[in-house]
Amino acid sequence: MAGLFANDTEQIDRRTSRSICDAVGERLQQSLRPEPRLPTHLEYLLNELKKRDLDTH
Are 22 and 30 in contact (CB under 8 A)? Predict the structure, then answer.
């Protein structure tokens, strides 16, 4: 596999590199969107657990 890249690489300019990085970043943001919110009742229960945990410390 190393032979594939030896002496055949082409340099890319900063502008092209920046464009590639931006495109990859945009795709990552789209695919890693936050999960939808929990149902209200579950969110309430989790908040209660957090409160009780803080009260015990």
Answer: no
**List of residues 6+ apart from 38 with CB closer than 8 A:** 46
Which regions in the chain score pLDDT beneath 50? 1
Assign residue 7 a region (left: φ > 0; alpha: ψ between -120 and 50; beta: otherwise). left
Radius of gyration of the chain (CA): 24
Reading the block at residue 24, the tokens are 């990859």
Six token digits for residue 27: 């795709």
Report yes or no on whether pTM surpasses 0.90: no
Q: How far apart are CA 41 and CA 23, in angstroms?
A: 39
